[in-house]
Write a structure and sequence with these properties.
Layout: H1 8-14, H2 42-58, H3 67-88, E1 95-97, E2 103-105, H4 107-126, H5 130-134
Antiparallel strand pairs: 1-2
Length: about 160
């Protein structure tokens, strides 16, 4: 299976953007504007806002049209936290007994694995993993203007 297509903003940050492979008609990302959907819980909205600040205002790779994709990431992360809480409860444990006496892994184990895979894929889409971040280069820092002091300004 082919790798997922990266947003142009990430390609530009990574220095891998090529004009011949770019879509000239791609909609531009309007920084900020990520709005938490109504279906998120209060805790999920808080996590959404934290991630939105990162991908929308700091990294500038997401805009308003990406709100639902970011919400899906938040839902996956929340489900992982809930299932981990279930499995860490000593009264429940990581294994359950079936009616026939067999011991099997708790169903939450399977959903954690599934949600971790979904969350990993979504984090890669937004450039939120160490591996995807290591590929990003914001470019050199601007040089200080040595003559700015003559105008009474600092660069």
């Amino acid at each position: 299976m082919a790798n997922a297509k990266k947003p142009t903003a990430l390609k530009i940050l990574q220095g891998t953007n090529q004009k011949c492979r770019s879509n000239p008609d791609e909609p531009a990302v309007v920084s900020g504007g990520l709005i938490a959907p109504d279906y998120l819980t209060e805790i999920q909205v808080e996590r959404f806002q934290n991630l939105a600040a990162t991908v929308g205002e700091i990294m500038l790779v997401a805009g308003r049209s990406d709100s639902d994709a970011l919400a899906q990431l938040v839902i996956c992360l929340d489900a992982i936290a809930i299932d981990n809480g279930i499995l860490s409860d000593p009264d429940i444990g990581r294994f359950v007994k079936k009616d026939n006496g067999d011991t099997v892994a708790h169903p939450a184990t399977r959903t954690i694995i599934s949600n971790q895979q979904r969350a990993q894929a979504l984090m890669n889409e937004f450039g939120l993993t160490p591996a995807s971040r290591s590929k990003v280069s914001a470019g050199p820092k601007p040089k200080e203007n040595k003559f700015a002091a003559l105008n009474g300004k600092r660069a």
